[in-house]
Amino acid sequence: MDLAEWDERYRAEGDSGASLSSTATPLLVECASQLRPGRALDLACGTGRNALWLAERGWSVTAVDGSPAAIDSLRSRAAQLGVTVDARIADLEKMEFVIRPESWDLIAMCYYFQRELFEPSKQGLVPGGSIVSIALLIEPGKENSPFRLPPGELRSYFDGWEVLHDREGRDMWHHTVAEIIARRPEID
Asked: For the chain, what is the domain count?
């Protein structure tokens, strides 16, 4: 889907946060539950299921998405929950959001894959910071999508990092995905 289609989808969902945008991603929950709350960046956040979960647990969260409807929903849900999320509209494909070096304790890229974001995201973590990434794998009929990757590619971005979780297979929605939790070395 392109950005306009995502915006329409989020607009149709409204503030309810229905469907897959209502609960935090289990892999993010697993990772963040083992960390002391700090600064988190949620890239391609949608309506904020992960950002809101983190904010409810004391994280200082910045959430970025290119869909104004998604960000409006996130802001509304944050207000309802009484939490603060710095929610920003930015087209990640156009690199409209700058990931500042050594600024984040945790970066999440869940169900969004953009090759150009990996290096800035890795540099955006403080030493010892963690990244959680889940990306769709190439499947028959979907080989030409720039938002899917072949098996083994996600892991290749984290050579020299401590990999805490590395899995390829089906998720709870029966998508074929690659998942990783990787920690930036204390000394590069």
From this structure: 1
